[in-house]
Design goal:
mainly alpha; 52% helix; elongated
Length: 146
């Protein structure tokens, strides 16, 4: 199946052969030019910058598409829906990036907390009696406080 362009022309490769879209899995285009002069408003420059960012890494933006309201729902017509979807997108992003909590993690944190409380109490007792904490205990306490 070859591609037909508007006007009835068939799309062709650079070597003149017809383009077979049945085997096309991705599309790549390039444009060569020496210079282009643009006069853009601040809004247009922002839109162009956003488009360039999207083209550079589209996968980064596609993860939120599932949370976008339907096109006929505008922020003015249904602000509650837009806020709900925005909150859902933020929650999904936090859940995606937060490290998973496992029993091993919980047990390790419990042990670290117990060790810290023990070392902190030793430090307080040592200060009251004008003594110093041992070097190994001081190093362990500093490591846990980081």
């Amino acid at each position: 199946a070859s591609a037909d362009l508007p006007g009835g022309e068939a799309a062709a490769r650079a070597d003149g052969e017809p383009l077979d879209l049945s085997r096309l899995t991705s599309f790549e285009a390039s444009l060569g030019t020496t210079s282009v002069g643009l006069r853009l408003s601040a809004f247009s420059l922002g839109a162009l910058s956003a488009a360039a960012g999207y083209l550079r890494a589209p996968g980064r933006f596609e993860i939120w598409r599932q949370h976008r309201p339907p096109p006929w729902e505008t922020p003015l017509s249904n602000p509650r829906l837009w806020w709900r979807r925005a909150c859902a997108a933020v929650s999904a992003e936090v859940a995606r990036t937060r490290p998973r909590c496992s029993w091993d993690t919980i047990c390790r944190r419990r042990d670290e907390r117990r060790r810290y409380v023990s070392l902190y109490l030793r430090q307080r007792r040592a200060r009251r009696s004008s003594r110093r904490l041992s070097d190994s205990d001081r190093a362990a306490l500093e490591r846990l406080e980081r």
